[in-house]
Amino acid sequence: MTVIDETPDFQRVAERNRRRPPHLVRPLSACAPRSTARAVTVHHLSFEGPDRYSSAGGLGVRVTGLADALAATGVATDLYFVGDPDLPAIERRNNVTLRRCCQHISRHARAGVYEAEEDKIADLCTWWPAHLADRVHADAAAAGIHTVVLAEDWHTVWPLIGLHHELERRGLRGAATLAWTANNRFGFDRIDFARLAHAATILTISRAMKHLMWNSGVNPLVVPNGIPDDVFTPISDVTQQAWTESFAGWTTLAKVGRWDPDKRWHMAIGTVAALRNRGERAVLLARGWDGNVAAATHYAELRQHAAAIGLEWTTCDGTAQSGEQLAHDLSACLPSHSGIVELTQPIAGPALQSFYAGTSAVLANSGFEPFGLVGLEAMAAGALVITGATGEDYVEPYVNGFSLDTDAPQEIVRVIDWTRRQPHRVETIRAAAVATADRYRWPHVVERLWLALNLPAVTR
Question: Can you name the residues that pair with 45 across neighbouring β-strands?
Fold first, then answer.
């Protein structure tokens, strides 16, 4: 058993926290001394990462963007993740050192990053704390460089706590800042939050997540997700014309997300049905994917439901590289009247930006959304975005987008009707959406992260 050697400062804060309501709890990291190091190195641990094998949702996008943004400031950045077993264990990309972990397990678990996840967690706990402690020792010996260790979501809790104890054992704890970010509520039932709060600064990505985590007895600091510069490329007049001509006479709704009940696909499909029932031609352009067996089951339920209410469901491979070609490809797959067109392949770059900006509205209408990365990326493209009402802190209804208070399709229909009556307001909302998204570029988020961790400005 490892004995935790708490400082008197920590004991006083911890005891005070036990007597306070959650919203007044002082983060235990607040008693940590401010680092006086002139430079830092970053080691970032996440299950998901940039490999296709490693990407199952927004977490892979987040850690890739954050690592790239940190490296762009000149900070030496290593990203540890459960990587593709067929790619190099160590690779340099965009000034980031990619370190693919658990490859000996992944070779026999090829369904994706979360297959055999318990074995992968156990493997990280076995070697990662000692490995990182060696790196901290090396960094501290090199002209006093301070090490920042970032970890993501519940899979990394035990390796991070193990690192904390290993650093204490070696007398190196003051040479490193440890931080853990909750990007979702997954796995909360397995986390000892009091122990985690002693080991690391706890962060989360929205006020909604912060308030949810009060129930776990912690008061995390909010550092939002960021978006890269390339999502701001405006679509050209030629591309916009291609979308307008391809879908003349149609109401086009775009939606991207996992086939998961939290994403409220039923609400999106119900909106198409409601528009169809009053004589309009409406289509949901959907890019979804299976994250697990439950998602595959939900997908089958959605197909059955659409058929039961008389909506056609067609598929399109969506492999076009340009926005114009994507518009033409999707229009060729339109149902005879109203329905769903499913993109069976990922879309990215200019094609994805046109997918957002060229449609009537983007439905990011999740029932529970910790942050809403899709909504923010769509806003950067100048889209009309309709979100839920949980973690999308950046949305101001009828100013830069729209948010929903219910799961009734008719609420979306009312928003669509309002946009048709107020075309001049629509253009103002699109412009405000882009301006809002601009505040969430990764360099701005990195600055907020450094402030939250009480670190000096990044040395370029």
Answer: 80, 151
Nearest-10 Cα torsion for 20, 26, 32, 37 = 180
CA 130 to chain centre: 29
Please tell me the pTM assigned to this model. 0.87
Phi, psi of 32 (to 5 degrees): -75, 145
Token representation of residue 296? 């595959």
SS3 217: coil
Closest to 272 in 3D by CA, of 302, 311, 237: 311
Tokens read off for 411: 């609420």
Count of CA atoms in the C-beta half-sphere (13 A) of 36? 1
Cα(337)–Cα(416) distance, rounded to whole angstroms? 19
* Distance of alpha carbon 146 from alpha carbon 174, whole angstroms: 9
Please say whether the dihedral angle defined by the alpha carbons of residues 211, 222, 455 and 173, taken in this order, is positive or negative: positive
CA dihedral (454, 74, 63, 452) in degrees, to 10, reads: 10
Q: What is the mean pLDDT of each run of 10 residues along the chain (460 residues)?
A: 35 41 41 52 97 92 96 96 98 96 98 96 98 94 89 98 98 96 96 98 97 96 96 92 97 96 96 98 94 82 97 92 94 96 93 96 96 96 96 96 97 98 96 98 96 75
Give the full edge-to-edge strand order of the sheet including 76-82.
90-93, 96-101, 76-82, 40-45, 146-152, 176-182, 201-204, 221-222
